Amino acid sequence: MNGYKTFASKSKFDFSGNITAVVGPNGSGKSNIADSLRWVLGEQSYSLLRGRKTDDMIFAGSESRPRSSMASVKVTFDNSDGWLPIDFSEVSITRRAYRDGQNEYLLNNQRVRLRDVSELLSKSGLAERTYTVIGQGLVDTALSLKADERRRLFEEAAGIGLYRKRKDLSIRRLDKTKRNIERVQDILAELAPRLKSLERQSRRAQEYDHVRADLKEILREWYGYHWHLGQREFRSAKEGAARQEKILIESRNNQSDKDQELVLVRNNVNSLRARLNSWHRQLAQIHTKREETSRNLAVNNERTRSLIERQSQLNLDNNSLRKEYELQNQKLEEAKKQVARIESEKVDAENNGLKANNILDKLKGDRQSAENELELIQRNYSQLNARNIELTALEKDLVGRIEGHSSSKAETQIAFDQAKQAYENAMKNLELAANNLANSENELLDIEQKLNDKRENLESLEEDFTQQTSELNKSESSFARFKAQHEVLTDAEKSLSGYAEGAKLLLNASQKGKLLGTKGALNAKIKVSSEFEQAIASALGEYLDAVILNSSGDTEKALEILENNPAKATLLPISQIVPDSPIMVKSFPGNYGVAADLVDAPAEFRPVIDLLLGQVLIVKDRGLAKRVIHDLEPGSRVVTLRGEVFHSNGTILINGDAGAATLSRPRVLHELMGKIQTTQKSIGKLKNNLNQLSEQREISKDDISVFNKDIAEKNKLVKILRSKHHRLNLETEQVKNSSEWHANQLKILDENAKSAKNQIVNIKQEKENILKEVELADSEIRSQTTQVGELDLGEFTNQVSHWEKRVAVISSEYKDANRALSERNNIVSQHRESLENLKGQQDVVDKELNEIVDSVSSMRTSETGISGQIAEIQILIDPAEAELQELEAKQIILESEESKSRQSLNMAERYHSQAQITLAKKQESLDTLRQRIEDDFGLVEFEYEQDVSGPTPLPLGGKLVERLQVVSGISEELEQTLKSKRMQLRRMGSINPEAHQEYLDVKERFGFMTTQVEDLEQAEKDIREVIAELDALMGREFRKTFEVVAMEFKNIFARLFKGGSAKLMLTDEENMDETGVDIEARLPGKRMQRLALLSGGERAMTAVALVFALLKASPTPFCVMDEVDAALDEANISRLRELLEELSKDTQFVLITHNRNTVQIADLIYGITMGKDTASQTISLKLEEVDDRYSS
């Protein structure tokens, strides 16, 4: 051991005797020896090893010694008698563990998998035996187990663990086979209805193809007729369109002539009409001007009459208005006199009222001053009395407050002392809580840091696992690819692929023993570097797969075989071959030498090589070959690396890659085998790494789970401590605030008491001053009241009221008089304005009369001139109108002729359009027919008649291009048959054209799946038979072992207890596969009782009896017992010693004990102590050497 648990230094234990004892004080590391044996044999349960993870298996270090980075345990077995199924006399098993979680296993210093170690030990019974290493306190486990769990001890003793694994493997295979059967049956269930559907679709598709073929034959004839018919109709329509186009051109020319003549006449008519219109407009304008002059004369005459009447009326209105104006002036003078009188009376009344009002105002002022003075004195008197009362109440309040301050100060002082003490206690509690919180938070941070480290480690492991998995997938893919390539090449070599038929025939005959003198093919006997394979293959040519024969007799037999099977073959009888001397060539760049020297072959085939390749020179490229070939002897050849063969006679042979594949096949096979072996080793290594990474990941996950739990607990604790700290902080703050408040209250109470005393002194002084002021104010009130009573306002108030009323009455009359005066002024003004307006109107009327007289005279002179102009224009109009009538008559005749010509042109255009439409329809029909033909037949070579053109396919030839036959006529039956076939296709609906092929594929797959089901059902049957055989075998072995163990248990129990009885019982004898094992024990002198009621020593003795019975029935190479004698007294230990000595003949025992009596039977003793550096130290002692020294 090295670095395992407490064994920090390398420690070696030699268990050469039959019984070895290990002794030492508690805690020295004795039990770690048992754990190390269990661990090195492949134990994966860390709980049985008294740990939680790989790190617990490695020395953890101490203050004086650093920790170990690795733990290693190596156990060596003597296999001279072959009890382990491996061809070594000594077998060593080593297990190493590293702190990153990796574990590695070595068998005889060669790295292996855990599975390899388990399989090796399982064949010897050491892999799973729970009684091979009995740990401390575990001896009682055999009794504590349930009956069905106890069965496992007997299965291990019977050695049926291997059978159990095989059965479990068979059961898994059976389950997998069942699942495969279910999957295949599900597939068959899906395929069955689809197969029927595809069968129907296939029949329909075949029927559809048959109908379509018939339709195609009919269409070929129908299209042949209609294609040529359509061309004839198209040609006829084209000729009709040409005729109509000629007629249209003639009509257009005639229409053009008529249009030109008509345009000329229309221009003359329009010109003459324009002149007449101009003259008529001038005449109309002159008539309008004369009518306007006549109308203006009539209007002026009427206006003259109206203005004379208006002038007379204005004179009458002026006389009447002037009389009314004079009357209104008299009334205005009377109104002015009335206003002056009322205004004088108003001034007198206002003066008298003003005098009375001045006297009254003076009296009111005097009285108001006296009353204000009295009110001021009374208000002052009231304020002094109120202030006196207020000061008296305040004085009483201050006296009460001074008395209350004393009692409040005493209470506040007590509360202040209490708050101060509470604050000191709260600060101590707060400081303690803060320390606890800080410690817990630091611990939480440490745990979180460890958790982060573990997570990073796990992420690294995950990345490594992913990388290793990817590499494994790549390696497995490469392995599969290399293996497939190797199998393909192997099959090709076995089938002689690439060989000439004659060579194959002879080599097959040789394999069957018909041609015994065959040495094989030439290419299989030579080895060539890959660089020269192409060149050598080209140089050998048809000799590459030549068959090598021993003698001329063998040659004759080969020729006889080839006579019946004519095939090409090349024979090389070794005995008859005489090689030429190889060519001699000087060395130069690009010259690789004579081909025979570049080939490796056995010595017996060297003549053949010299014959075929001795006259061949290998060079780099054809440039060198061309230069060298002329310098060589006749019959020589020069071959380039690309396989170009240059003969001395000037011929050049290019073989390409022919033969190079067969020549390189052995080399490629050898290389592929090397790659397969390398990849296989890599896959094994990667799988081992993945297993170790998986174990490390699980360990890391367990560690992370533990850390998460610790963090959760620490978080709860920190949360509680934070809450407590916060609460104490609040309490401390509250106590502090309370203390400060009470201190402040004491200060305030002192200041308030001092202030109250000062206020009382001031209040007394102020009260004395107020009493004096009250007496003075009372005297002033009595004097002022008498003065106010002497001032009377009644008489002067009545006078002021009388004059105010008089002024109001006169003011009203004055307003009325002024209003009447204003109205008279307005009336006079209106009459004055009216007179002025009438005067203006008379002036306007006189002026208008004078203007109208002048205008009438001018208009009469203008009317005479206009009549002369009308006569002049009428002389021009009369002959022009006669000429216009003649031109209009001629225009009517021309328009009639043009209309008839236009009708002819329209008819020609209509006929031409109809001809073009007919031509386009025929062209479209022909194109549509061609498109339909191409849709139905694909590429078609059409025959076009004269004047008909169209697309022509490329001259592909063969059956790729259809050709329509010329059909002069078709029968009505053909049309009816065509309609019937098309109707039949439409009734058949959509058809899957791939249905028949799909039906064949699915049918083939259905048959294959049916065969697979049969094979799987047969495999299931075979697996069930294997499971039944294993059950029968395990049942026999279990029954046999149980009977032996039961007999030995009964005897050993009686020996250990000096009497009594005990027996083993099966819980279900009918079911040997599932039955458990119960124990019944009756101690000497006692009744039968349950195992749970036995004492500790009795249970230990019973368990030891069961273990020894198992060891007797199925001895193991060794057995480790850790303090199984702890509960036994000296008498029982002596009986235990007897049994150990008896069993040690077949089994080596390692006893970890504290009992001196147990140590006495040991051949070898190891003492274990704990050093100061916490590492276990060992010392060994052989008792036979001690006896020899003592006796000497």
Tag the structure with descriptive keywords.
five-stranded mixed sheet, 18 helices, 24 strands, 1192 residues, flat, Alpha-Beta Plaits, alpha/beta
Cα distance, first to last residue?
35 Å
Fraction in helix: 55-70%
What CATH calls the topology of one domain is Alpha-Beta Plaits
Spatial order of the strands in the main sheet?
A: 6-21-22-1-23-24
The count of DSSP E runs of length 2 or more, i.e. the number of strands, is 24
Shape: flat
Structural class, judged by helices and strands?
alpha/beta
Enumerate the spans where pLDDT stays under 50 for 5 or more consecutive residues. Answer: 953-961
Can you identify the CATH class of one domain?
Alpha Beta
Helical stretch tally: 18
What is the name of the CATH architecture of one domain? 2-Layer Sandwich
Give the percentage of residues in beta strands. Answer: 5-15%
Biggest β-sheet description: 6 strands, mixed
Radius of gyration: 72 Å
Average residue-wise pLDDT: 78
